[in-house]
Specification:
single chain, alpha+beta, two-stranded antiparallel ribbon, about 15% strand, globular
Length: about 50
């Protein structure tokens, strides 16, 4: 189970302070659980992690 405040696999936001503070941990979890993180922030975003 994730220890993050946000579910980065379905609510990815590059400007989230937690993403920047825990960058490697967030990416490790994304790679392990979801190869494509996504967000509806702004115009939407998809980020490939593998």
């Amino acid at each position: 189970m994730s220890s993050f405040k946000r579910d980065f696999s379905t609510d990815f936001h590059v400007e989230d302070p937690e993403f920047n503070e825990r960058f490697e941990e967030v990416l490790d979890e994304l790679v392990a659980t979801c190869p494509i993180g996504r967000s509806n922030v702004g115009h939407g975003l998809r980020t490939r992690t593998s």
